[in-house]
Specification:
By secondary structure, this protein is mainly beta. It is about 5% helix and about 50% strand. The chain has a 22-stranded antiparallel barrel. Strands 11-17-18-15-16 form a five-stranded mixed β-sheet, with no helix packed on it. Strand 39 and strand 40 form a beta hairpin. The radius of gyration is 30 Å and the shape is globular. About 45% of the residues are buried.
Length: about 850
């Protein structure tokens, strides 16, 4: 480790020694296609011989945020803006990466007599001869661009955000693109575009997805760092799981792209980046107004309203989503509301501003697990529920903003966010099993194992970086210094509720915590290019995490209770041994520092082929309820490595975009998390290791977009060699979309038809006690047609109505379904996967184009 750190520090010193770069190395935008626009008949002559426009060419090659700097008159200005908004561009390139650029264009106007002739014709002027038609704006602009009438000025200043450099073969920047045609119910479903990810959900609609990635059971995000436009999603101090992440607040239609790094290889990755990280980026390509309604199976209803100013950036948008469903089978009803708004604007040619606000509320019922022996005996149906009181609710509200500065070789970024969230989840995995009779308690039977968890948190986040580009060895080099700071105030309680229909009475309190938690991280990241084919990227990250926890239920039992004053059934005791008084509360504080080196070596590209190798350390902080006074915080430490090959090329005269990758990887965790059915969440276990590989490929053309990937991994405990339970060893996924305009037109407007299909295969997962789960093989499909801004679609989830078990477990339980005597023999439990779900969608779009 010492040698690794020495190399990293030498890399940073070399980068610091680099001299500042020139403001060059930027290729300006290029015009690809032009759209025709006509100056309205009767327009007055232009007031000057040109119109000077300033606008942004986005990363997608569209003209946005158009501003008239020098006017030739309202009609001519409007015609110029209308035409330019429909042009397409090859975006500006900064070191080969598409970026948004602020650009100016000066167009010369036609001669005055030509305009006068057009006006005279419009007014029915005399003379008997046919007057010339009013000049088309496109004709004028063509002349200007070709130099026919005058000057064509194009000055470029970068205004977009430069994407972080690749961290190897497992760094995936996923543009959703046409794969949005594959039916997906939540924004979390988009994670399945990344290799090796499986999502399950024993809690139903509204409950966060359980995430499996590269042999990790990340539960609801404990081993996967999740962000939305830079704002953290993972909760700290949530009793359902430290790192709990609920992505249901994201409107799926607003996800523009996401970046998934499978492994802790980027110095920007922080707490919970054990299996990796996923960063969502929101935006709206469809401009104007969109109204979308969906109705289908199980009385599922959904309404979505979206809007985006036609001349603004895709990051300027608004959206609202309302949804409700009765759910399939028993106890699966859910309803939710989401709202999001974003704005991107310029403060100057070098500085841009983004502001975003998000709100979310949901309530849901959960069916929970079923016993396999009950199903086989006919005591329950496949879609039934054993405890109808299971379910939950969630709220989230966030406000964030950032400033981004770029000029020449220097970039600076600063972001701040305020987030409020609350969650309540009621789950029962074991029925009537864990309520043990204590000697101090009044006699009682099993009162039920329904766990009721509630968490509420307020989070303040600030982050930023400065990046300098320099020249060394005749090559461009970069050094970035950054920070991350987060402060959380969290309250959390866990109770157990008495059994019985419509009963909401707690009989025991397991936890009552108030926590103040902070995380301050610093990092240095260098991007060093030694030759055109050899690049080293990496650096060092250090995080200081502090905990101040007030436990209001610190004493749950005493070894030698007072005979004269027994504590009885009270949960949070105010006495020690022999009845000595003490307060039921107790404070504990702790802190810890984690230092994590990370590096990636890239060799290539050679004819589109790049070889990569990455190593890195990661960290997962401890759950606040396990914090002990005056002891260093026990982190979970992760060490990961990988080697891979990446291929990317544009073929067939750049009409076919092809990419592929293959990766071999390994990971070791010293304190892994393993699911515990009695607690209904993951608890700290022993050390584990993983070894596996993946392949992925995507091809995009003028009428199709197809991606497939497969991952195989073996996860085992280091001490026993047993397989880590519940994680899949084989995950295969196919996403495909077809889209084409029909050769005929309807009322002089094109009709476009589109289709998408998604196929998932999951191999048999290891279960406790040497058992294996069933396989999962599910197909989803969607077809739709669009005409004049109207879209009609029909989608089918689980197209072939496969009866499958989404989650499977193996443990002891007693739901009192098989009297007279309970058993502690482990049996198979499962949650049912959804049957075929058919949804009909009708959407209207006005005033914009995708």
């Amino acid at each position: 480790m010492s040698r690794c750190r020495l190399v990293l520090w030498l890399v940073l010193v070399a980068a610091l020694a680099a001299r500042p770069a020139r403001a060059g190395e930027v290729l300006p935008p290029e015009v690809l296609t032009r759209a025709e626009a006509t100056v309205p008949p009767g327009a007055p002559p232009p007031t000057q011989d040109h119109v000077l426009l300033e606008f942004t060419v986005s990363e997608q090659g569209r003209a946005e945020d158009l501003v008239v700097l020098e006017s030739a008159g309202p009609a001519w200005d409007a015609a110029a803006k209308e035409a330019l908004a429909r042009w397409t561009f090859k975006p500006a390139l900064h070191e080969g990466v598409a970026v948004a650029a602020r650009t100016r264009l000066s167009f010369s106007m036609p001669a005055r007599r030509e305009v006068d002739a057009g006006v005279g014709a419009a007014d029915g002027g005399a003379g008997g001869a046919e007057a010339p038609h009013p000049p088309h704006a496109s004709e004028v602009f063509d002349d200007a661009l070709d130099g026919g009438h005058g000057e064509h000025v194009m000055s470029t200043v970068i205004t977009g955000r430069l994407e972080p450099k690749s961290r190897g073969a497992s760094d995936l920047r996923i543009e959703v693109g046409q794969l949005k045609l594959v039916p997906r119910q939540t924004a979390g479903d988009l994670l399945k575009l990344a290799p090796g990810i499986l999502l399950t959900n024993e809690g139903g609609d509204g409950h966060p997805e359980r995430i499996f990635l590269r042999g990790f059971d990340a539960r609801e995000g404990q081993d996967l760092e999740l962000t939305v436009d830079g704002v953290p999603v993972n909760d700290v101090g949530n009793l359902h799981g430290n790192g709990y992440a609920d992505l249901n607040f994201v409107i799926p239609e607003l996800v523009e792209q996401l970046r998934v790094i499978e492994g802790p290889f980027d110095p920007r990755q922080g707490n919970f980046a054990v299996a990796g990280s996923a960063a969502y980026e929101l935006g709206l390509k469809q401009r104007g107004l969109t109204v979308k309604g969906t109705y289908g199976s199980f009385d599922t209803q959904r309404v979505v309203l979206l809007w985006g100013p036609p001349a603004a950036s895709t990051r300027t948008f608004g959206g609202v989503s309302l949804q409700r469903t009765a759910g399939f089978g028993q106890n699966r009803a859910a309803q939710s509301a989401r709202a999001a708004a974003g704005y991107e604007g310029r403060l100057s040619e070098t500085t841009s501003l983004r502001v975003q606000a998000i709100g979310y509320a949901a309530g849901f019922r959960s069916a929970g697990v079923l016993r396999d022996d009950d199903l086989r005996a006919g005591r329950v149906g496949f879609f039934d529920s054993l405890d109808p009181r299971q379910g939950g609710d969630a709220t989230r509200a966030s406000l964030s903003g950032d400033l981004h500065y770029h000029l020449g070789g220097f970039t600076a970024h600063q972001q701040a966010a305020l987030v409020f969230r609350s969650s309540r989840i009621r789950e029962n995995f074991t029925g009537f099993l864990t309520d043990v009779q204590l000697a101090r308690q009044a006699p009682h039977g099993q009162r039920g194992d329904l766990i009721d968890r509630d968490s509420e948190a307020l989070t303040l986040v600030a982050s930023g970086y400065g990046r300098m580009r320099g020249a060394l060895l005749s090559r461009s080099q970069e050094l970035e210094l950054g920070y991350f700071a987060r402060y959380d105030v969290v309250t959390a309680q866990q109770q157990r509720l008495l059994a019985g229909p419509d009963v909401n009475t707690p009989y025991a309190k397991d936890a009552d915590l108030s926590s103040r938690l902070s995380d301050v991280g610093l990092y240095a990241d260098a991007n060093l290019s030694f030759t055109p084919w050899l690049t080293l990227r990496g650096g060092l990250r250090a995080d200081l995490l502090t905990f101040l926890v007030n436990d209001a239920c610190a004493v749950g039992d005493v070894r030698r209770p007072s005979a004269a004053n027994p504590p009885g059934d009270q949960s949070c005791l105010a006495q020690r041994d022999f009845g000595q008084y003490r307060e039921p509360t107790e404070r504990a504080s702790a802190f810890g520092v984690a230092v994590m080196p990370r590096a990636t070596l890239l060799v290539g590209p050679f004819k589109g082929v790049t070889l990569t190798g990455s190593v890195g350390d990661g960290v997962r902080s401890v759950d606040p309820q396990f914090v002990t006074e005056n002891r260093e915080t026990p982190f979970a430490s992760i060490r990961a490595w990988e080697g891979g090959v990446v291929y990317a090329a544009k073929l067939l005269d750049e009409t076919l975009d092809v990419s592929a990758r293959g990766v071999v990887f390994g990971t070791r965790v010293d304190k892994d998390l393993v699911f515990n059915e009695q607690e209904g969440r993951n608890l700290i276990g022993g050390s584990t290791s993983r070894l596996g590989g993946l392949v992925q490929a995507r091809a995009r053309g003028g009428f199709f977009d197809v991606q497939g990937h497969g991952t195989f991994v073996r996860s085992q405990f280091d001490d026993t060699g047993l397989l880590v339970p519940y994680v899949p060893d084989l995950v295969l996924r196919l996403d495909a979309a077809l889209f084409k305009a029909l050769p005929w037109r309807l009322f002089d407007a094109a009709v476009e038809v589109r289709a998408g299909v998604g196929v998932t295969y999951v191999g048999r997962r290891a279960l406790p006690f040497g058992e294996r789960s069933d396989v999962i093989f599910v197909t989803d499909a969607n077809v739709e047609a669009s005409w004049r801004g109207v879209t009609l679609g029909l989608s089918a989830l689980n197209l072939f109505d496969t009866r499958y078990r989404l989650s499977e477990f193996n443990f002891a339980s007693d739901f009192r379904t098989a009297p007279p005597f309970p058993t502690l023999v482990p049996v198979r439990h499962f949650t049912a996967g959804a049957p075929r779900t058919v949804l009909l969608t009708l959407a209207f779009s006005l005033g914009g184009a995708p």
